[in-house]
């Protein structure tokens, strides 16, 4: 497999409060971790929350081994809880950072499966190479999304709801938080998109699918997505990770 992380400040924001990473495990063969985080609380708090979340999960990942690989879903659930504790405690002990928080979407990719853990409204999408189906596999933790799942509003109403951006869960805002954890199969040629809402709020699922299918190279697909989000206004930071099943390459980060 191969992966690429890209981030862009957008056209309006003065600071980039997103963070992310993609890298292979040093000791567990053919296994990679992708993380995207969208900080909130304003500069510098949002920056700290997102970067700290990525750094902490990366540290825990480096300590994992073959035993943890037997249950990557359980590992994600336990370690996202540890990340939340770390971010919350840091914010409470630094008055200038109190109230900071972040979304986190993390994916562990193996040869046969990928494991997803998310808190907030950063998303994970799966493009099935056999069927061409492009599907969001995470559930947004926002007021509008909860109302939609409860059947109180339509999907269209959720997309334009005034409380669309109000999160019902985030990392670091409370002493504890439960993540959603999912497990899926994938095969050669499949692709994943992990992104912050600076992308998913500006570019439709149909356009994201079209770009992923139409670009062979991950870098060109990622740049096309960022270009489209900026073309549509670019009011927020835009971050994404693209992962392709098929051949092994080095993890790449760019900004």
TrEMBL record:
SUPFAM superfamilies reported for this sequence: PP2C-like
PROSITE patterns: PPM_2 (PS51746)
Keyword Hydrolase recorded: yes
Annotated ranges, domain PPM-type phosphatase: 2-245
Gene3D superfamilies for this protein: PPM-type phosphatase domain (3.60.40.10)
GO MF term (any one): protein serine/threonine phosphatase activity
UniProt cross-references to CDD domains, sorted A to Z: PP2Cc
Domain of life: Bacteria
Keywords annotated in UniProt: Hydrolase
The enzyme's E.C. designation: 3.1.3.16
InterPro entries: PPM-type-like_dom_sf, PPM-type_phosphatase-like_dom
Protein name: Protein serine/threonine phosphatase
């Amino acid at each position: 497999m191969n992966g690429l992380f890209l981030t862009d400040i957008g056209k309006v924001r003065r600071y980039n409060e997103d963070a992310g990473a993609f890298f292979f495990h040093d000791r567990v063969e053919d296994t990679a971790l992708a993380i995207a985080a969208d900080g909130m609380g304003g500069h510098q708090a949002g920056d700290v929350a997102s970067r700290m979340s990525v750094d902490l999960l990366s540290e825990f990942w480096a300590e994992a081994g073959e035993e943890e690989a037997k249950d990557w879903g359980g590992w994600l659930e336990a370690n996202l809880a540890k990340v939340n504790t770390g971010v919350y405690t840091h914010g409470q002990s630094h008055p200038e950072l109190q109230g900071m928080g972040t979304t986190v979407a993390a994916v562990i990719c193996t040869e046969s499966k990928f494991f997803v853990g998310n808190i907030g409204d950063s998303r994970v999408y799966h493009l099935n190479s056999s069927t061409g189906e492009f599907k969001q596999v995470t559930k947004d933790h926002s007021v509008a999304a909860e109302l939609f799942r409860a059947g109180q509003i339509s999907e269209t109403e959720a997309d334009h709801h005034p409380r669309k951006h109000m999160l019902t869960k985030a990392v670091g805002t409370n002493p504890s938080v439960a993540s959603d954890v999912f497990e899926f199969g994938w095969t050669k040629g499949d692709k994943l998109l992990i992104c912050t809402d600076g992308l998913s709020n500006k570019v439709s699922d149909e356009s994201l699918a079209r770009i992923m299918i139409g670009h062979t190279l991950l870098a060109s697909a990622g740049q096309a997505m960022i270009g489209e989000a900026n073309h549509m206004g670019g009011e927020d930071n835009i971050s994404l990770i693209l992962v392709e099943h098929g051949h092994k390459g080095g993890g790449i980060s760019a900004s």
